[in-house]
Amino acid sequence: EHFSAGNTRLIIPYRGWNICLLICYDLRFPVWSRNIQNEYDLLIYVANWPSSRRLVWDTLLCARALENQCYVCGVNRTGSDGYHLEYNGGSKIYSAFGKETASLPDGQEGIATAVLSLSSLRQFREKFPVWKEADAFHL
């Protein structure tokens, strides 16, 4: 009733950063987050990722950071839903190097903060410009 399928990727400029917003299931499809020409610097996933698939959540968040040379923030819920699925959180931020820079303990609601450096990200992209080798694939 309130949402419809989109046909473009949402990238928001904010204080010099370009931020790409995606949701839960999008994480499984790397082509949807493909960062051609460094269109964005930070990728944010908001999710309902069940505890039973937690290893996949952690692995794919890190992979999206590495393959797109960007920061990745995954925000996941805690608790249970009406289908008796359990969610243990696992909200995290990864650097473009795949390093976890912030997280919350499992099962705990809260706020985690990290300092993200746009200048360091740009230096890394310039020093290791694999993004220049990407094909121009578009959805």
Brief rundown of the structure:
With 139 residues, this protein is α/β, with parallel strands linked by helices.
Notes on the structure:
There is one protein chain. With about 140 residues, this protein is an alpha/beta fold. It has a single domain (about 10-135), classed as Nitrilase/N-carbamoyl-D-aminoacid amidohydrolase, CATH 3.60.110. The protein has 2 helices and 8 strands; from the N terminus they run βββαβββββα. Strand 3, helix 1 and strand 4 (about 70-75) form a beta-alpha-beta unit. It is globular and about 45 Å long. The mean pLDDT is about 95.
Helix and strand string, N-terminal first? EEEHEEEEEH
**Helix content class:** 10-25%
Tally of separate helices: 2
Overall mean pLDDT stands at 93
The computed structural class is alpha/beta
Q: Tell me the strand order in the biggest sheet.
A: 1-2-3-4-7-8
CATH architecture: 4-Layer Sandwich
Give the domain tally.
1
Distance between termini? Answer: 25 Å
Largest sheet features:
6 strands, mixed
Low-confidence stretches: none
Number of strands: 8
**What would the principal axes of the Cα set say about the shape?**
globular
Radius of gyration: 15 Å
Secondary-structure blueprint of this entry?
Layout lengths: L10 E4 L2 E7 L18 E6 L6 H15 L2 E6 L1 E3 L5 E3 L3 E3 L5 E4 L14 H10 L12
Parallel strand pairs: 2-3, 3-4
Antiparallel strand pairs: 1-2, 4-7, 5-6, 7-8
Which short descriptors sum up this protein?
single chain; Nitrilase/N-carbamoyl-D-aminoacid amidohydrolase; 6-stranded mixed sheet; two-stranded antiparallel sheet; 18% helix; globular
